[in-house]
Every structure is written in structure tokens, then in C-alpha cells.
């Protein structure tokens, strides 16, 4: 096996969202951890709008991946923290533009993030098979 595999075993309930229950990383892969990304733009401005912060966050994730020669296909785990309710229609639209296959994912609603203007933070783990 030389590629990352994502599965939803038939012995488990179907996922309630856009994620895979299991992600298998091939032997001898390089593991990448990334700091949580927030929705600031390239100039460092953080918009007030939660949906725009989500869009910017995915752009920043893409920049982080590209800096290491990786793509969304290399993402093995996504952790999402949000202080506001997520507009799932919008979120899923952005998600599907980014991911062609769904990695494993965890979502949590929390009371605060690092700065009061940050509404969402998304952390990824990625792997590059050799």
C-alpha cells in the first residue's frame, strides 16, 4: 500500500457529516503536523464574518500544505474548533471545493479561541507516502 486510504467500515454507523471514520497511513510515510489555522487574510486582517473566516482558513491551510509540497489529498485528520454555530451548507461547500475525499475529522464548539475576533480555527495533520 503506497497511498493514504480512507474508510467507513460497514460495522459502524455511517458518518453524520463529511468525514471518514478511519484513515490508514502507509508504512514509511512522513507525518506533518500543522498549527491551527485561522481566518485572517494574507495581510493579517481578520474579518468579522464567520463564513469568510472559514474560507480564509481553508486558503491558509492550502498555503501551509503547498509550502511542504502537499495537497488536500495528503490530509489525514482535521480538527475544527468554532465559537459560533457553523453554517453547514456554506461549510460543506467550501469543504467539497477543498477535499475530493474526506479525511477523519473532529468538530467542537468552544467558548473562546486565542483572540476574541477569531471565530474558527482548523488544525490538520498530513502524511506523504514514500
What topology emerges from the helices and strands here?
Elements lengths: L4 E3 L14 E3 L5 E4 L3 E2 L11 H18 L7 E8 L5 H11 L5 E6 L10 E9 L2
Parallel strand pairs: 5-6
Antiparallel strand pairs: 1-2, 3-7, 4-7, 5-7
Helix pairs in contact: 1-2
Q: What does this protein structure show overall?
A:
- With 130 residues, the protein is an alpha+beta fold.
- 22% of the residues lie in helices and 27% in strands.
- The protein contains 2 helices and 7 strands; from the N terminus they run E-E-E-E-H-E-H-E-E.
- It has helices spanning 50-67, 88-98, and strands at residues 5-7, 22-24, 30-33, 37-38, 75-82, 104-109, 120-128.
- The strands form 2 sheets. Strands 3, 4, 5, 6 and 7 form a 5-stranded mixed β-sheet that branches. The chain has a two-stranded antiparallel sheet with strand order 1-2.
- Helix 1 (50-67) packs parallel to helix 2.
- The longest helix has 18 residues, at 50-67.
- It is globular and about 45 Å long.
